[in-house]
Write a structure and sequence with these properties.
6 strands; 5 helices; alpha/beta
Amino acid sequence: MLKNIPSLLTPEALYGLASMGHGDDVAIVDANFPATAVAHRSGARLVQLAGITSPQALQAVLQLFPMDSYVPDAAWTMQVVGDAGAVPAPVAEFSALLAEAGERPAATLERFEFYARTQAAFLILQTGEQRKYGNILLRKGVISSDAS
């Protein structure tokens, strides 16, 4: 047992997150997302978190994960097909969690652009989220001991 580690994150998820470097992406995806196929094609590490929702996974990840502050956007969600301005419930929850963590809002990507970006992810965390559009990409930043 470890202290101050979100219990929702499995040892495999923790290893994947700890193995990431600056600029690597993690995808937190819902149960409908073709995570196995994407991971197989891209070589990404796939970790199943079937017992939790995507917002629960995001909240746990944000407790440990430094977001990239050197890029215009460090988080992306998938746009609703046919209504790019719609905000599905999981996306609204992602927005609230990012704000609560002091992070910038997520940008949005068209569905196939989101799939393409996920194919470049280092880690895919597939949740048990059954609501549509429960997908978010995060870009890892750095932890620095520099005073500046």
